[in-house]
Amino acid sequence: MADEHARKWDRCLADTAVKTVTGLGVGIVVSFIAFKRRAWPLSFGSGLGLGMGYSNCQHDLRSPYLIHGRMVKDQ
Amino acid sequence: QQCRHYTAGEGSSASKVVVAGLLTVSGGIGGTVLYSSSLEDYWGCLGLCLCVCVFSLEECNECHEHKEATAVHPAPTEPMKERPVEEVAARLAQQEQEEQDISASSLEDSLASSAKATLQAIGAQEAALQAIMQHTDKLKEAMEAEVLPEEKSNQWKDLEAALADRTTALNDARAALSKANESLDSLRSVIDESKGLKISSVRPLVLAAEENLHNMVVDLDKMVMKVKLRLQSITLKVTSGKLSTDDLNALIAHAHRRIDQLNRELAEQKVREKIHIDAALEQQKLEDQKALDSAVNTALQHVKEEARLDQERKLAELREVMEAEMRTQLRRQAAAHTDHVQDVLKVQEHELKAEAEQVLSSKMLEQETRYRQLTQEQLDNFTLDMNTAYARLKGVEEAIDSHVVAEDEARKAHQLWLSVEALSYSLKTAEADVPTVPLENAAQAVRDSCRDNDFALALASALPEKSLQRGVYSEASLRARFNSLRSLARRVALIDESRNSLYQYFLSYLQAALLFEKRQEAPPSQLSSEDLDPFKLLSYASYCLEHGDLELAAKLVNQLRGEARRVVEDWLIEARLTLETRQVVNLLSAYANAVGLGTTQAP
What we know:
The structure holds two protein chains of two kinds.
Chain A: H1 2-33, H2 40-62
Helix pairs in contact in A: 1-2
Chain B: H1 13-36, H2 41-72, H3 82-144, H4 149-197, H5 202-234, H6 245-427, H7 440-449, H8 454-461, H9 465-470, H10 475-491, H11 502-514, H12 534-546, H13 550-558, H14 562-599
Helix pairs in contact in B: 1-2, 1-3, 2-3, 2-5, 3-4, 3-5, 3-6, 4-5, 5-6, 6-7, 6-14, 7-8, 10-12, 10-14, 12-13, 13-14
InterPro entries (chain B): MIC60 (IPR019133)
Family (chain B): Belongs to the MICOS complex subunit Mic60 family.
Organism (chain B): Neolamprologus brichardi
């Protein structure tokens, strides 16, 4: 289980990094395409990516504590 | 003269038998006498009769005995009543027989001897007579024969020899006569003796003997007289015949000589004659008288004897009759007696038989009971022995079985112990970070070795599945892992259900970096609420681990909550597994030890 934790962290970091870079990339692209090489889509994209990664990471780390409910229909 | 048979009596069979015996005896002894001489009928007859008489006497006795014997032994098939009478008669007869035998034998002997002597005497007399005749013939021959003087002298010599013979024969006759008289006297004495014994059956014998004696005496006397007559008559014989001249001369010479001699002798004789005649006359007178007397005496004796014999005979007859009468009476009495005795004996026999039967039955009963008792005793003893033997056998069998069972138990216990030891040894095969070998085999061995032991079986089956399949980690590895885990748990100490954002993660990391606790701290005996701090718990657990108390460490670690808990969950499971396995193995080992100790017997 400890390994899980470490793995999680690895995944998480990797994922965050990828997202960030991907966001950055997308931002760059967007900035190039739509926004006339402004800086703000880069940070926006990297921020977006970072946030997604962070959220993912948190979700992943939180996942054991999440309770999954189910709707039981009265029949 | 005819032959005179000596008969003892008229009519009685015994006397006839006596006669026959005597006849036989006489015949036997006189046979040779008869043959040796050319006898005139009278002498031969006499001798024969005497011999026959003697033999018949002996035979008579035998006959008598035989008769008595045959009278005594009746047929055995006669009825019982006759028997005693006959036996009594037999006994009487036997007694008589014996006495009779004695006297009869003596009588017989004396009679025989006297008969012999008489016969001898008669023979001698006869021989004398013969000699006399011979002499006479010779003399006649000598006187009348015309022969030579030598032969004459021979003849005279022969004559002298004949004369000598005659004299010797006469002497012999005299001697024999004296002997005969002696024997007759002895016979008389024996007869008197026998008479004195007064035995009835001997009487006829006695009578016969007496009569024989009498007859013998008579004959002897007659013989003697005959001889005397003969002697006297010899001198009266006259010879005549023709002779030759020489012979006549010789004869004349001889005659002259003889005449001279005779004249001389005559003269002498004349002288003596007178004397002699007187003497002779006297003597003759005396002799006549003597002869007369003797004749009278003998005649008288004979008559007396005859009368006495008659009387005796009559007496004997009468006695016989009386005897017969008495015998019949006695027989009757004996019969009556035997009847009575028989009855009494029968009664006695019955009584005795009944008594004996009773005694026998009682004894038999006693013996039976004793025998039964003994057999019962024997049987009881045997049964007892058998029972004891059987019980012992059973005991022995049980002991053996229990031994076998105990040995079996011991063996099983040993096997169990061995398998448990193997199991516990296999626990030690865990190296660092590598679990032990799967405990399946060892557990299987343990299960095999305790198939009928429920407790052990339960224990063996209580081994956790994971350990069987995968094996367990050693304490050392757990300890090692814990150290690494500890840092991780420290880092996530703040995270739990409520705090699980990344920020909290960051904070918990920060806390872990900044918080310092004792590396190892001895746990208290009771945990309070502030001891539930993860850092503290971890340090307690570390201490416990360092001191080898995995259980307490596990317990302490179990108190972690939240993410730390999740992080050490693995380790906890492993620790639990190891603990469980170890516990089971320890239990099994203890059990095996206990069982082994229990079954092992001290030598």
